[in-house]
Amino acid sequence: MKRDFISLKSCTNAELAKLLESASRLKRAKNRISDDLKGKTVGLIFQKPSNRTRVSFEVGIHQLGGNCIYLGPEEINLGKREATSDVAKTLSRYLDGIVARTFSHHDVVELAKFATVPVINGLTDLSHPCQAMADMLTIHEHFGKFKNIKLAYVGDGNNVCHSLMIISAKLGVNMTVAHPKGYAPLKIVIDAAQDLALETNAKINLTTDPVQAVKGAQVIYADTWVSMGQEEEARKRLKIFDKYQINKKLIANADKKFIFMHCLPAHRGQEVTEEIIDGPHSVIFDQAENRLHAQKAILLHLLGKGKK
Ligand code: CP
Ligand code: NVA
Predict the structure, then answer these.
(1) 8 A C-beta contact, residue 81 and residue 105
(2) So what's the pLDDT on residue 308?
(3) Is the CB of 263 within 6 Å of ligand 2?
(4) Is 228 close to ligand 1, i.e. is its CB under 6 Å away?
(5) CATH superfamily of domain region 129-287
(6) For the chain, does the N or the C end have fewer beta carbons within 10 angstroms?
(7) Catalytic residue, candidates 135, 179, 223, 270
(8) pLDDT tens, position by position, 243-286
(9) Mean pLDDT over each residue of the chain, to the nearest integer
């Protein structure tokens, strides 16, 4: 049966560990060209802009010996020009896999439901699992473990935050989210993460106090305050999130050896000051690079030799 990579919830903890090991191995192999995806073509359906996701998938597929076709918003017009189910069934006759970045999470779920080839979530309004995989690879590279690591996510309870909560719970990372009132992660995600954390003893906490979140944290994580599709709320959000900026004063509460993470794109002077994001604790480009290795591991897992 074909497998998809849509939600981290549906991966077992052992599968996640294996994928991260595989990503690490691929990284050590230094982008060597292989023929694992020889003769296979992957379609990239993007409803939103992208730098890292598109480029790292295209390069990764190339390095694995496969081909890809970029299908931007104008080409497919998912659900508008034709039904998502028809897109999924048609593309399954040509392609060996699909990466999709959509607004509604339901669209990726629909694609996966009707496609007979694997579908990978390249970000939806609900989640960003490929990013979370790269982030965990980065954290493990840095600290050599997940246990007893405190990750403080400061800002909007958005897609990136959701995936970090689920993966932290599954891998045993303690995570505290500091968010303004009214911008908490979705309750369904909080409940799922806290439930999954019972298995690993991870602590998944929420607060509206950024200082409390950052206290003693080894990992400080920021994302934009205005996600793609929320542009009209920008003015309001910039005011509301003002106290949630990662700056020198806030990180004085963190562990001395903290790392600063951001999925990018970043807005210097908004969610993070220039001196932090460009400072010695920042690992943002390791994270960006690790998208490539993590996604190659996912591609091999779903489409590699022996997989249909
Ligand atoms: N972090 C991330 O997904 O970046 P892009 O939006 O540029 O793909
Ligand atoms: N939360 C951001 C992440 C971008 C990679 C967004 O959805 O725009």
Answers:
(1) no
(2) 54
(3) yes
(4) no
(5) Aspartate/ornithine carbamoyltransferase (3.40.50.1370)
(6) N
(7) 223
(8) 999 999 999 999 999 999 999 999 999 999 999 999 999 999 99
(9) 97
